Amino acid sequence: MGLLDGKRLLVTGVLTDSSIAFHVARFAQEQGATVVLSSFGRQMKITQAIARRLPSAPPLVELDVTSTENLAGLADAVREHVDGLDGVLHSIGFAPQGAFQFLTAPWEDVATAVHISAYSLKALAVATEPLMGPGSSIVGLTFDASKAWPVYDWMGVAKAAFESTARYLARDLGPKGIRVNLVAAGPIRTTAAKSIPGFQVFEESWGSKAPLGWDVNDPEPTARTCCGLLSDWFPATTGEIVHVDGGFHAIG
User: Fold this and answer.
1) What is the C-alpha separation between 225 and 49, in angstroms, rounded?
2) Contact at 8 Å (CB) between 63 and 18?
3) 159: closest CA among 141, 137, 172, 138?
4) Given 7, 159, 168, 176, the catalytic residue
5) Can you tell me the distance from the alpha carbon of 128 to that of 126, in angstroms, rounded to the nearest whole number?
6) Contact between 64 and 39 (Cβ < 8 Å)
7) How far is residue 155's CA from residue 198's CA, in Å, rounded to a whole number?
8) CA distance 6 to 106
9) Where are any strands of DSSP class E within 60-192?
10) Per residue in 138-188, pLDDT tens?
11) What is the pLDDT of residues 196-247, one digit of tens each?
């Protein structure tokens, strides 16, 4: 019996086979889940190609989290493939290059970062809530926003908003039996990470400080934790941030 037998999951953010979301989808399928992926625009063809590398190529729905039309139609689009959802993975984030210069970033770049990287969690939760019921789970990916990191700048502020958004969603969706939790991963060498100027600062120092060590090329520990939170094994856990970072966050 698999950890996710019978579960129906929507997984966002599959862009390459190095994406954390790709490994969540892979592990979820291996553990018995039915997976639906989302993508949008020119990325749809990329996601379709990458999806063929999963144990079973899942269906794909269009979702641009800044599009009110896409969000309004998401539940119906998902229903074409499954009759409901037991879990949603939010693996969405973007900031324009200008947002990685804290003191000079224009509001337009900051607003884009907050909209796509933080507000989208609420937007996705509201769009999929009609498909979910008691026992369902929303899991999002964050990068510990309790600290001011080198080079992360306004993306760090957006992640702080993202983490706060998860707590408010946990408050409002809890009475409906829907859990909302986040996984704070250490740095993983993904497409999104490569777009951050100076990302190698994290790569060079993380492994030496983390008590368990850290492999920036291994997304599987993070993916396994996401799948655990999407399963029935955390029935009374919500509003939580689980660190999967080799213990880095605990060391002064």
Assistant:
1) 25
2) no
3) 141
4) 159
5) 6
6) no
7) 13
8) 46
9) 60-62, 87-90, 137-142, 179-185
10) 999 999 999 999 889 999 999 999 999 999 999 999 999 999 999 999 999
11) 666 777 777 898 899 999 999 999 999 999 999 999 999 999 999 999 999 9
Ordered domains of the chain (ranges, CATH): 8-250 (3.40.50.720)
- What are the pLDDT digits (tens) for 61-108? 999 999 999 999 999 999 999 999 999 999 999 999 999 999 999 999
- Which one of the listed residues 45, 152, 176, 209 is annotated catalytic? 152
Strand 8-11 relative to strand 87-90, pairing: parallel
**159 is known as an active-site residue:** yes
Q: Which residue type, as a one-letter code, is found at position 65?
A: V
Amino acid sitting at position 67: S
Residue closest to 97 by CA, chosen among 81, 109, 80, 84: 109
